[in-house]
Design a protein that fits this description.
- The protein has 423 residues and is mainly alpha-helical.
- It has two domains: 246 residues; 135 residues, no CATH class.
- Helices cover 56% and strands 4% of the residues.
- The protein is built from 18 helices and four strands.
- The protein has a four-stranded mixed beta sheet, sandwiched between helices.
- A hairpin with a 5-residue loop joins strand 3 and strand 4.
- InterPro entries: DCC1-like, DCC_oxidoreductase.
């Protein structure tokens, strides 16, 4: 199996591409906050409404514009750390300026006194604490090494856990306050107190991964219920502010998520002593395919890649697929110039099945996406795949590096072009 060399600098299984998914989610949430601020945010009036030039400087329109600009930068991955810090300061200042509990009050947290903006601020802190440029960010697009020097700060995960657990500890306080007869169980009062919330957060941070995973899933189910309640409201009307707070806490759940909980899908069993590996066949003249390979190399959770790569244009591909009888061009037509996978046990996967299989083999969020994608009907999956494939040459220029993407030396051993193929 191809060895990339060097220890991976990962915390809890985080990779750059997965972190970029979270970064984009935080950015979209910032954009939603900007829309609410532009429309007036909370309906409560300011205790000291400014006038004149000061009123223009602190107007909802200007604050919303600043948040929207920061949101776009965060989504794209440009200057993420300073933008996260700046937008967090703007949000905290604006909430205080409007003299409200928060831009987005969340019912359980509001009842117990936890600042409802805290989940959003904690998510922004996680972005600000990350080091390097993750795969998928704007600076990472031009570097040769797809992994780069990105790493997640362990403290940001601990902070996310603390806020998530304390939010639900405060929810317990709200339940305790409404306990029938007023005789609240001592354990419920203890867990719902601030010290109880900190204790639960510490347990979550120090517990074994399986324990943290159980806590995370239980709290996420509760979060879905809270979001549904906030979206509908008691009177059946939409509560944008409540929904916004639920979205903030849901995004913080993504920060507290640990990709190591979802291991990569195991390779199909092979005969004892066999050295067969899953092999990805790709269009060497396709810019999108080159980017797909770089994604796979950046997101592998171990220092060894689970695949060997071979371009469709190589004679080796013909021997592997056509001469071996895996694909019959006389019956099925010409071999499609798309991503193919020849599994270690000799199966041929094409189009969406091949793409989702690769994602399953990466583990973490990618495996979750791959598993969910495979639940879709094949016709629908392949239609989406073919729609993208039909315009890929228009959207992505033909690579200038030949059949193999430009990569550092350790990655090159992952390519098997055959002895009779020139690059």
């Amino acid at each position: 199996m191809p060895e990339l060399g060097g220890a991976l600098n990962m915390h809890a299984g985080w990779t750059g591409g997965q972190f970029s998914v979270v970064r984009a989610a935080v950015g979209l949430h910032l954009l939603a906050l900007a829309c609410v601020v532009a429309s007036g945010g909370s309906q409560e009036a300011s205790n000291s409404a400014p006038s004149g030039l000061l009123a223009a400087l602190v107007s909802p329109g200007l604050v919303a514009l600043l948040l929207a600009a920061a949101a776009v930068g965060v989504v794209v991955g440009v200057a993420t750390r300073p933008l996260a810090v700046a937008s967090g300061c703007v949000l905290a200042w604006w909430a205080d300026r409007r003299a409200t509990a928060a831009v987005f009050p969340w019912p359980p947290a509001q009842a117990a006194g936890l600042p409802p903006l805290m989940p959003t601020l904690a998510a922004l802190a996680a972005l600000a604490a990350a080091r390097g440029a993750p795969y998928g960010s704007w600076p990472a697009r031009v570097r040769v090494d797809p992994r780069g020097d990105f790493s997640v700060a362990p403290a940001s995960t601990v902070l996310a856990w603390a806020v998530v657990v304390m939010a639900y500890a405060n929810g317990l306080l709200a339940i305790a306050a409404a306990w029938p007869g007023g005789d609240t169980p001592l354990g419920l009062r203890a867990l719902g107190s601030p010290l109880g919330g900190l204790f639960l957060a510490g347990v979550a941070a120090l517990a074994a991964p399986v324990t943290r995973a159980a806590i995370w899933h239980a709290s996420f189910v509760a979060q879905i219920a809270a979001a549904a309640l906030a979206a509908s409201g008691i009177d059946g009307s939409t509560s944008l502010s409540g929904l916004g707070a639920s979205l903030g806490l849901a995004i913080l759940h993504l920060v507290a998520f640990e990709p190591q909980w979802v291991p990569a899908c195991a390779c199909a069993p092979v005969a004892p002593g066999s050295t067969a590996r899953d092999r990805v066949l790709y269009d060497g003249d396709c810019g999108l395919c080159h980017r797909f390979l770089r994604l796979v190399m950046a997101e592998a959770q171990r220092s060894t890649l689970p695949f060997v790569f071979t371009p469709l244009q190589s004679p080796l591909c013909k021997r592997l697929v056509l001469d071996s009888g895996l694909y019959d061009e006389a019956k099925a037509g010409p071999l499609p110039d798309s991503v193919l996978v020849v599994t270690a046990d000799g199966r041929l996967l094409m189009k969406s099945a091949a793409a989702f299989y690769v994602m399953q083999r990466l583990g973490g969020m990618w495996r979750v996406i791959g598993e969910l994608g495979m639940l879709l009907p094949q016709n629908l999956r392949d239609f989406g795949y073919e729609s993208v494939a039909s315009v890929r040459h228009m959207l992505f220029a033909k690579p200038k590096t030949g059949a193999c993407p430009l990569l550092p030396k350790p990655y090159r051993s992952a390519f098997d072009l055959g002895d009779d193929f020139g690059v």
